[in-house]
Specification:
There is one protein chain. By secondary structure, the chain is α/β, with parallel strands linked by helices. The protein has two domains: 2-201, NAD(P)-binding Rossmann-like Domain (Rossmann fold); 212-461, Rossmann fold, CATH 3.40.50.720. The protein has helices at 15-25, 38-44, 56-63, 74-80, 106-118, 135-144, 166-171, 184-197, 211-242, 246-254, 275-288, 292-319, 347-357, 370-377, 390-394, 414-419, 436-442, and strands at 5-9, 30-34, 68-71, 83-86, 123-127, 152-156, 176-180, 206-210, 328-332, 361-365, 383-386, 399-402, 426-429, 445-448. Strands 3-2-1-4-5-6 form a six-stranded parallel β-sheet, sandwiched between helices. It has a six-stranded parallel β-sheet with strand order 11-10-9-12-13-14, sandwiched between helices. The chain is elongated and about 80 Å long. It starts with a strand and ends in a 13-residue tail after the last strand. 46% of the residues are buried. It binds uridine-5'-diphosphate-xylopyranose (UDX) (2 copies). One uridine-5'-diphosphate-xylopyranose (UDX) is lined by residues 9-15, 35-37, 40, 87-90, 107, 110-111, 129-130, 273-274.
């Protein structure tokens, strides 16, 4: 009976959608989601979910109140469930040893201790959060040091969903990865977790490994993805010097099936809660295991990302006659990618800060991320305006900087926008989402990323 009650601790971007999908697809399981954040739980129980994710409302509505329950009752949840997913955050440590690189596992450990304290029976505890390889070993020790004679089996089942496409990714994943100890108990627990996913994922897509491979796979999958972006972004800089076009180069490269076409879009840099944190964590692990060359290799992926963000700001300043002081710059998009309101580690944060340091006035418009943008920039000095529509942001602006690849940016009336801007009007498309030729014909001086510029100015720059 307990095996049919699943608990998830941590109702964030990962825990919330993942558990909602499990509940929707597995009506014979009861899924409880708990979180220490009461406001978040109240939002999960309301018509306005705490995160914006296309298609998520329907999934939640289908199961909520039937076999999906959100609450702050962590203790009650631990007592009832036989299977516990842990999806609390694992930020980069900002203190003590490993500060700035290592993962801060304090929430994880506190959660493990709370599981031990309140458990009345054996449990399967599953790492959903991204964790350093071999965390399961420490977890195993903490959990099984209990004096109640209880057994806790620790498994790893990392989540690969991307924000903005979470529902699609969960419904039809490339693979589900589950790592377990090779012991009899480990393999028994593994079967129970496989059985959950088998409700909607075909068995050949459920990959089972040992725990360490599973933990490490999650970390390095993110590192490999980020590495592709840094590689293509580094080449975008070379394209701008040589009149090559990064979109053409990416497309032509991607036709090689060994390279593949996905994740080759140059942009202002990668953001999101995972990439930077996970690479730094990988760097720390390599240092810990005395592999400095491997550490330096991966660290470069993060350096290249910051270079790209700075390069973009440098270009804006240079093209606008070497000063943006007192000039209004409309920021189109603050989210770290399209179709999400999430702004964690968004390049827009850094780009905005650097523009403000140069005394630019910035006017931000984002379809979903204004609330988070305000939080990110709170306490930052400078002239910042948050706008309800793109036309308001661009009115009287000297330049537009596109920082997120929202589709709706393509649909605006750019003639109207141009007419209401200061001249010469500049447009810096940091995501290459707009129709550059059309904008140029309207009168904009267009600076795409990694592509030849379309400028009416003979400025010799
Ligand atoms: C997080 C991690 O960032 C990621 O590495 C991991 O893979 C999954 O968890 P995300 O869901 O995006 O990803 O984080 P977040 O939205 O911050 O959600 C974590 C939730 O855990 C928060 O709602 C927080 O309130 C909750 N939490 C945290 C607890 O319930 N208990 C704690 O002790 C700490
Ligand atoms: C990522 C991983 O994709 C996912 O598997 C993991 O579970 C969590 O981390 P996420 O951060 O939500 O997901 O979004 P993702 O689509 O990977 O984009 C990350 C960043 O890279 C965004 O800022 C995006 O704009 C950027 N990006 C992505 C590019 O600049 N170019 C690309 O070609 C792809």
């Amino acid at each position: 009976m307990e095996d049919k009650t699943i608990l998830c601790i941590g109702a964030g971007y990962v825990g919330g959608p993942t558990m909602a999908m499990i509940a929707a697809k597995c009506p014979d399981y009861t899924v409880l989601i708990v979180d220490i954040n009461e406001e978040r739980i109240n939002a999960w129980n309301s018509d306005t979910l705490p995160i914006y994710e296309p298609g998520l409302d329907d999934v939640v509505k289908k199961a909520r109140g039937r076999n999906l329950f959100f609450s702050t009752d962590i203790v009650g949840g631990i007592k009832k469930a036989g299977i516990i997913f842990v999806s609390v955050n694992t930020p980069t440590k900002d203190f003590g040893a490993g500060a700035g690189k290592a993962a801060d596992l304090q929430y994880w450990e506190k959660t493990a201790r709370s599981i031990v304290e309140h458990s009345e029976g054996n449990k399967i505890v599953i790492e959903k959060s991204t964790l350093p390889v071999r965390t399961a070993e420490a977890m195993h020790r903490i959990l099984n040091a209990n004096t109640k004679g209880l057994h806790f089996e620790v498994l790893s089942n990392p989540e690969f969903l991307a924000e903005g496409t979470a529902v699609k990714d969960l419904e039809n994943p490339d693979r589900v990865l589950i790592g377990a100890m090779t012991t009899e108990r480990g393999q028994e627990a593994l079967k129970k977790i496989v059985a959950i996913y088998e409700n909607w994922v075909s068995r050949d897509k459920i990959k089972t490994t040992n725990v360490w491979s599973s933990e490490l796979t999650k970390l390095v999958s993110n590192a490999m993805l980020a590495q592709r972006i840094s590689s293509v972004n580094s080449l975008s800089a070379l394209c701008e010097k040589t009149d090559a076009d990064i979109q053409e180069v990416s497309e032509a490269m991607g036709l090689d099936s060994r390279i593949g076409s996905k994740f080759l879009k140059a942009g202002v840099g990668f953001g999101g809660s995972c990439f930077k944190k996970d690479i730094l964590n990988l760097v720390y692990l390599c240092e810990h295991y005395n592999l400095p060359e491997v550490a330096r290799y991966w660290e470069q992926v993060v350096f290249m990302n910051e270079f790209q963000e700075r390069r973009f700001v440098g270009k804006i300043i240079q093209k606008m006659f070497n000063t943006v002081s007192d000039k209004r710059i409309a920021i189109f998009g603050f989210a770290f990618k399209a179709d999400t309101g999430d702004t964690r580690e968004s390049p827009a944060i850094y780009i905005s800060k650097w523009l403000l340091e140069e005394k630019a006035k910035i006017a931000i418009y984002d379809p979903k991320a204004t609330k988070n943008a305000k939080l990110e920039l709170s306490g930052i000095e400078g002239n910042i305006e948050y706008c309800d529509c793109p036309y308001e942001a661009a009115k009287g602006a000297h330049a537009i900087a596109v920082l997120t690849d929202w589709n709706e940016f393509k649909t605006y009336d750019y003639l109207k926008i141009f007419n209401e801007m200061e001249k010469p009007a500049f447009l810096f498309d940091g995501r290459n989402v707009l129709d550059h030729k059309k904008l140029f014909s309207i009168g904009f001086n267009v600076f795409p990323l990694g592509k030849p510029e379309l400028s009416h100015l003979d400025d010799g720059n």
